[in-house]
Design goal:
Layout: H1 10-25, E1 30-34, H2 40-50, H3 52-58, E2 65-70, H4 80-97, H5 110-123, E3 127-132, H6 144-153, E4 160-166, H7 173-176, H8 183-186, E5 190-193, H9 198-212, H10 218-228, H11 232-249, H12 253-261, H13 264-275, H14 279-291, H15 303-307, E6 311-313, E7 319-321, H16 324-333, E8 339-342, E9 347-350, E10 353-354, H17 361-372, H18 380-388, H19 392-395, H20 398-414, E11 422-425, E12 429-432
Parallel strand pairs: 1-4, 1-5, 2-3, 3-4
Antiparallel strand pairs: 6-7, 8-9, 9-10, 11-12
Length: 436
């Protein structure tokens, strides 16, 4: 008998399955949120095929339950009718598998056919659970699709349920408002699938080594883990890329790091993660990237990021992104042309990099004042007060001010910020602006 190869350690898989299938056992809909590329399809399809783990959770209910997996990639077009046809075809196929003849009447529209067949299953006391993969696909359909799904659910809410599988935060207020009465089903119960932990990472790397017939040195594996964190798709692609380019990289950790950080395929994976965030989540991720902090005003909007482990606690009060490849990608999304002062950390950032250390204490104080007062005229007297405090009159020196301004411009040029944005205004003082 062929040995079952689990996508995760069996104990980990059982814990994840328990979170997903316990609400199903309780006759509730469940929203399952994953980081893009973090094993949504692999995990669910394995559990539905393997069966034993689900049987243990559902008990006697399992034998009276059918699971209908819906993949929007099977749709022939971008209409509600196209999506409903997938539901109908998948449902009737499952009915045939359990020996129930589906209702197929030409005079009925697709939605009515789905409901008629569900009524037949309800009459046989069969519990139907639809797994709606890539649920965010429905955002591209006419909004009546959400009313259609609510209509399907209303046939019998104790024997028909949905599992919403998504890489988007469905609980964001603007998104929830799109769902009409389906909001109740979407918010009934939830599960945030976290990126893999240390044990799970080790397990899937061992599986990669087995499938690739390659044993990677421990220091190389450590480097890849630092780069990818617990993101399964990044890990998988990285080891495949390394296998193809192993001789070229000569097992050199620095070469490997640089090669993977700039690999186009891995950048695409990061883009998929990034483009599924809403605007607030992009701000949070960018802030964590450059300041290691979540802005206090946005902490209550960070559930999706924290619970999926895209953003992780590092030291007390500080956060980090899950891996260096994604961190590198995010830094490239932050507009490089703007010089930013973060009040909470008292640091200056440019293009996602902290450059506070480049400036002396006096230079730093003056530059911060310029950033806080962009496009304003800062007089020499004002600069004197910043540099020398209340006794500035006694210490005042035009030569010293011009010297410090010159040094700041030079250092701005070194970090590739346009120094001409710090301009001298004859007999008036100075003015600073960020490029628009």
């Amino acid at each position: 008998m062929k040995k079952t190869i689990y996508p995760l350690p069996k104990e980990s898989l059982e814990k994840r399955a328990l979170r997903i299938f316990t609400p199903i056992k309780d006759k509730l809909c469940v929203t399952c949120m994953f980081a893009a590329g973090s094993g949504k399809k692999t995990t669910i399809k394995f559990l539905l095929k393997e069966k034993e783990i689900i049987k243990k959770i559902l008990g006697k209910l399992y034998d009276k339950t059918i699971f209908v997996y819906i993949n929007p990639d099977d749709a022939s077009g971008l209409s509600s009718e196209d999506y409903l046809l997938i539901l109908l075809n998948s449902l009737t196929l499952k009915m045939k598998e359990i020996g129930i003849n589906p209702v197929l009447v030409n005079q009925l529209n697709t939605l009515e056919l789905i409901k008629r067949n569900l009524e037949q299953l309800v009459a046989n006391n069969i519990y139907t659970v639809f797994f709606l993969y890539d649920f965010e696909f429905l955002f591209y359909l006419p909004q009546n699709i959400f009313r259609n799904l609510e209509s399907i659910l209303s046939v019998n809410k104790s024997l028909i349920n949905f599992v919403f599988l998504t890489s988007v935060n469905l609980f964001e207020r603007k998104i929830l408002a799109e769902f009409y009465n389906l909001t109740y089903a979407i918010t009934q119960s939830n599960y945030y699938s976290p990126l893999f932990n240390k044990e799970e990472i080790g397990y899937i790397i061992a599986n990669f080594e087995h499938s690739l017939a390659t044993k990677f040195p421990d220091d190389i594996k450590k480097t890849v883990i630092e780069l990818c964190g617990g993101h399964p798709q990044l890990l998988k692609y990285s080891f495949h890329i390394l296998t193809k380019n192993y001789d070229q990289l000569s097992q050199n950790k620095d070469k490997i790091k640089d090669f993977l950080l700039n690999n186009y395929q891995l950048k695409n994976v990061c883009y998929d993660i990034w483009q599924n965030f809403n605007d607030v989540e992009m701000k949070i991720v960018s802030s964590v990237c450059i300041t290691q902090k979540i802005p206090p005003t946005l902490i209550n909007k960070s559930d999706f990021l924290l619970k999926t482990k895209i953003v992780q606690s590092s030291t007390e009060g500080h956060y980090k992104l899950f891996g260096k490849i994604f961190d590198h990608f995010v830094r490239l999304q932050i507009p490089k042309e703007k010089l930013i002062y973060d009040k909470e950390t008292n640091q200056i950032f440019f293009g996602g990099q902290n450059y506070s250390h480049k400036f002396s204490l006096q230079e730093f104080k003056l530059l911060v004042h310029f950033i806080k007062n962009q496009n304003k005229v800062i007089s020499r007297d004002e600069i004197g007060q910043i540099l020398w405090g209340s006794n500035y009159v006694e210490k005042f020196s035009d030569w010293s001010i011009d010297k410090i301004i010159s040094i700041i411009r030079k250092k701005l040029t070194e970090i590739e910020f346009p120094a001409q944005n710090l301009i001298t205004l004859k007999r008036r003082g100075f003015s600073f602006s960020n490029p628009s």
